[in-house]
Automatic annotation (TrEMBL):
It is found in: Membrane. This is Oxidoreductase. It comes from Chelatococcus reniformis. Keywords: Electron transport, Membrane, Respiratory chain, Transit peptide, Transport. The keyword Transit peptide applies.
Length: 106
């Protein structure tokens, strides 16, 4: 097996379906791209890979720190900017406003 170039993805993780807040979405993450395809182990049917870098996930306070780490270690990288989502804060009492937009469905 020959020497392959490591490539990585630098991104800010999105909220999971179980999160309502922004915890763990402020930090930047560096994940390595797979260098070898996964294969099915014939006896048990499990998916496996010989590439252990796929299990490594590094976390940084800022995007600049993640980029500096990749450049210091000679890792080719790509930066994925997060999509900004703007939500209108709504109070519980807004459900009962006189001029509420939308019909009450109870």
């Amino acid at each position: 097996m020959g020497l392959t170039t490591m490539t990585a993805r630098i991104f800010r993780p999105a909220r999971t379906a179980m999160q309502s807040g922004t915890a763990k979405t402020k930090r930047w993450t560096l994940d390595f791209d797979p260098s070898a395809p996964r294969r099915v182990e014939p006896l048990m049917g499990w998916t496996s890979s010989a590439d252990t870098r796929q299990q490594l996930r590094l976390s940084f306070e800022t995007k600049e720190e993640a980029i500096a780490y990749a450049e210091r270690n000679g890792i080719a990288y790509r930066v994925e900017e997060p999509k900004e989502v703007h939500h209108r804060q709504m109070a519980y009492s807004d459900n009962f406003k006189f001029n509420r937009i939308g019909q009450w469905t109870h």
